[in-house]
Amino acid sequence: MPALTTNSPSETRALGVELGKTLSTGDLVCLEGDLGAGKTTFVQGLARGWGSTDRVTSPTFVLVNEYRRTDGARMYHLDAYRLSGPAEAEDLDIDTLLATGPLVVEWPDRIRTALPDPSVTVRFTDLGGDQRKIVVWSDGSDGSDGSDRSDP
Ligand code: ADP
Ligand code: MG
């Protein structure tokens, strides 16, 4: 997927909706980028596209937010910003979360060794004002230009 530029929070949410429609149990989505780059805004779209109308907020006091769908399914949203490292993530039992729903992780680099390989990675860059660059890549592609290197 090529790099995209959004010009408003609602455009970023709309991209999230499209990815959210494709998510299922066991999918790990890693969201990279600085504070304020748009990760949590994107998750609002992800949850909606996946099928939850629950309010999406930044997981701060609880590390993992849960969003529910009317069929009882759950999606998990983890913010690793305040975690000191992978050891702390082990308490969260990531395998159990992934066994019961999709998992979205902000600041994945904080806990990288505690995470399996992501299904999808999204990188956000603040271009100033309301512009955000958003690059999405999936397992086996490197994200440098959006092309999939694993395909010969
Ligand atoms: P993060 O989770 O990466 O720290 P947030 O999504 O919480 O970022 O915050 C992004 C902030 O930037 C919000 O205040 C949002 O309204 C604002 N914003 C402005 N333009 C955009 C855009 N194009 N996409 C996403 N957020 C934007
Ligand atoms: Mg956030």
Describe this structure as you would to a colleague:
- The chain is of the alpha/beta class.
- The protein has 4 helices and 7 strands, in the order E-H-E-H-E-E-H-H-E-E-E.
- The chain has a 7-stranded mixed β-sheet with strand order 1-7-6-2-5-4-3.
- Helix 1 (9-20) crosses helix 2.
- The longest helix has 12 residues, at 9-20.
- The protein is globular and about 40 Å long.
- Bound molecules: adenosine-5'-diphosphate and magnesium ion (MG).
- Residues 6-9, 11-12, 33, 35-41, 58, 106, 124, 130, 132 line the site of adenosine-5'-diphosphate (ADP).
Summed up:
24% of the residues lie in helices and 26% in strands. It has 152 residues and is α/β, with parallel strands linked by helices.
